[in-house]
UniProtKB/TrEMBL annotation:
InterPro entries documented for this protein: PPIase_dom_sf, PPIase_FKBP_dom
Principal EC category: isomerase
Catalytic activity: [protein]-peptidylproline (omega=180) = [protein]-peptidylproline (omega=0)
EC code: 5.2.1.8
Name listed for the protein in its UniProt record: peptidylprolyl isomerase
Keyword annotations of the record: Isomerase, Rotamase, Signal
Span list, region Disordered: 280-302
Signal peptide extent: 1-19
Organism name: Salinimicrobium oceani
Domain PPIase FKBP-type: 126-225
Amino acid sequence: MKLKKFLILPILAAVFAVACDKDDDDPSVDPIPLRDRAEQEVADQEALQAYLDTHFYNYEDFENPPADFDYSVKIDTINAENAGKQPLSQSENLISKTFNYEGVDYKLYILKIREGAAEQPKPKFSDSTFVSYEGLLLDRTLFDASRNPVWFDLTRTVPGFGQAVTEFRGASGFEVLPDNTVKWNNDFGIGAMFLPSGLAYFNNAQSIIPSYSPLVFTFRVYGTNEADHDNDGIPSWMEDLNNDQRVTNDDTDGDLAPNYIDRDDDGDFIPTKEEIVINEDGTLSFPDTDGDGTPDYLDKDN
């Protein structure tokens, strides 16, 4: 099962809820109350910290790679048999990152084992990335995986996934072998992420993922593509007008199509692509015909 399949489940759940409105007054139905996001973040941080203190990853394999090592991240519980292992919380490769989402400052943790090839760009929050991954609950239940890399549109993943992957880079190149399989240069990004439920599915249960579940993903990043979802000449990340690293809530003309998927951002019936200038070197210029400080492509009255 692929991660992208989980992404449509909240929509399906919403449709199902509407279809079942007639049962809302059934006294036998005990709905799960919506929790306060800030309060749930406190609980999730306690759970994540406990996890990081009691689990370790296969750091010794990365320090001295066996001949058959596939450079996959494996996480296990520290117990009596491996009491000497270094917990994730003490790893020099573990960093934290704060991201404001729905009015709450969330903290996610990122295990940056290898950033990736220095000459490759880091993806933006709205780009597409070529990754392989495993998704786990804190009890180590596997809920999703793809050993072969797949393309992910970061605007359609859970918020924390994109925030973590943007800290990595892809491989410097690859080789197509005689059997038509691909061998990537061994410099691709390798890591793991530890997400509070507020940056995952929060109250929306997904198949075997319960509501309010913090999530763990291990992953490898092989490549990235800058996205222009509506092909209007403006990269999607540049259509984040309020600089909150979310492109779904920027809608200049109020037509319910966010700018990053709207080919006429200001609704003046002139395509955005005709109201900007793409220079010979690939850079963009944004004319402001009436000099009011708003570029033409965002100004219906210019």
